[in-house]
Prior knowledge:
Elements: E1 2-9, E2 15-20, E3 23-31, E4 37-46, E5 53-57, E6 60-63, E7 69-73, E8 76-84
Parallel strand pairs: 1-8
Antiparallel strand pairs: 2-3, 3-4, 4-5, 4-6, 7-8
Amino acid sequence: MNDLGTIEFTDGAPLTVNLGQGNTCTIMPKVLPDGTLQLRMVMEGPGDGNGAVETLSSPTIITRPGQTVAMSVNGFGVSLTPTLKGE
């Protein structure tokens, strides 16, 4: 599990994190009308060795700023505590 710690997001601004071994996680934050935070995540890794990238998972998590969340797929996982810029 890769603990990314506290990450400050700006509404609508994607962030890509390198998870090592050719794996990345792109997180697209969106503030919902009730103040919760929707995090659309796309976890990608090396494909079949020809330079292609394979999407491993693309979950969506809804949480509150300051609440730690975690997800795992195919042995790759991330945990993070989202905050919003300006809060």
